[in-house]
Amino acid sequence: MALSSIERRLSYHVRHLLPKLLSTKSSHFLAYILSLLSLLTAGFITIISLYAHSWQSVLHYSSWQINIIASTTNLGLYLTPPILGIIADSHGPITLSCLSVLGFVPSYSYISHVFHSRNDSTFAFHASLASFFCIGVSTSCLYFSALLTCTKLYPSKKLLSVSLPTTAFGVSSFLGSQLIKVPWFWTSNSDSTRYLNLARIFRFFAILYIIVGLLAWIATGVVSLLTHIESDYIQHHQEADPLLQDSSVSISSISVSSKTSDTNDTKETNSSLHLFKNPVLLILLVSMIFSLGPLEMFAVDMSTISTILVPSQATPTTTLLPVYALSSVVSRLLTGVIMDFQTRRGYRQKHILFLYLACSLFLHLLLFIVTSTDSSISIYFLYFIGSMFGIVNGGLYTIYPILTLIIYKNRHFGKIFGFLMISPAVGTLLSCLQFAKTFDSNCANDGSSICIKSVYEIGLLQNICAFGLSWLVYNYWSKRNSQI
């Protein structure tokens, strides 16, 4: 497939300079390493729950406003991948890597200015929402460009193409939670109360993503280079075909080739449309909304939830989040290793999915019981719950792309997985706003855990629906693919 005009312009310098410096094999390896490095910083927005206290103390944001910010970010993060997948398939991952820089730098610069100036006006809040939406889109661009680069470099190795990239993205959350512990990022109020200085954090991220964007541009430019080499190779052999040397058949051959190409393009378009019209894909989307929404809500509202569940003891989210993030990282890596092993041995993959869905169902049942009886739990039990949420979250975010790759192959992976990434956007929005509404109405006067009982009642029902719908989907697919 030839490069588009956009991809050709964006990758021009990489395609012309890199072959003079490195061999094709070395360029291949460099692109993979740089993609992993990009992913290690791509998920810093996932530590947004750590900003809650600073927003409340400095800008006086309510729980509803903080959840609106988190939900808007997730809309940008998960609602745009269908479009991004089409852009990447048409113009290469390099287009996404360039778009990510254009979104990250001005957005982080603006919200840094808002916090520094302590501007709590309505206009500043709405402009901040737009900035966080752009940050969500940019995160998705950077993640997708790196993930698609890895899948194009190692399409047959699930560990290298999906597991390690998603693990690196999970590690970014842990790295971010450790990064903000640097003393320079903390400031004291007039009453000597220390808080996270978000102006410094966001300014640092704006500078960081300029560097990361450059690395991602080189990595994705290598993919364009390899595509260009492959296209030239095919074209050269077509021109060397003896049949084309005969002028009597050259015109007819070119005509047939052109018609075949047009036919193939039409078939591919019709095939893509057919995939999106498949009701099984829509059922899978709904099941992912029900499974991922409550999990994302726990990550977003971790600070508030920990305060409610363990009111008698200080439970800083800066301690709970690393436990959650590290568990997610380990889960992503082990899940990828196990699924890669099962693929090579010809074992079915759906059982590990239902293991994680069952664990999620158990966790929400457990929290429903805790909040129903107004039971107090220890800090260590909270860490256990946080680690289990991390394990389930990391596992599901590794399983879904691998299963998508197995079912729809590399040809349609960008479009289909991008479409499925709508699910966490919708799920997070519904679950977070439900939590914020419940907390603001029930927990203002009653700080006991029973005030959020309805949140986990709904979460439990969502998980039951997710399990049932997933069972229907994968029973359908298992009859058509022996690896599912």
User: How would the global form be characterised?
Assistant: globular
- Work out the number of β strands: 2
Q: What summary fits the major beta sheet?
A: 2 strands, antiparallel
Looking across the biggest beta sheet, what order are the strands in?
Answer: 1-2
Q: What is the name of the CATH superfamily? A: MFS general substrate transporter like domains
Mean pLDDT: 82
Q: Percent range for helical residues?
A: over 70%
State the CATH class: Mainly Alpha
Notes on the structure:
GO terms for molecular function: transmembrane transporter activity. With 484 residues, this protein is mostly helical. The chain has a single domain (19-230, 272-478), classed as Growth Hormone, Chain: A, CATH 1.20.1250.20. Helix content is 82%, strand content 1%. The chain has helices at residues 5-10, 12-21, 24-42, 52-59, 63-79, 81-91, 93-117, 122-153, 158-179, 198-239, 247-277, 279-300, 302-309, 317-345, 350-373, 379-420, 422-442, 453-478; strands at 186-188, 194-196. Strands 1-2 form a two-stranded antiparallel ribbon. β1 and β2 (194-196) form a beta hairpin.
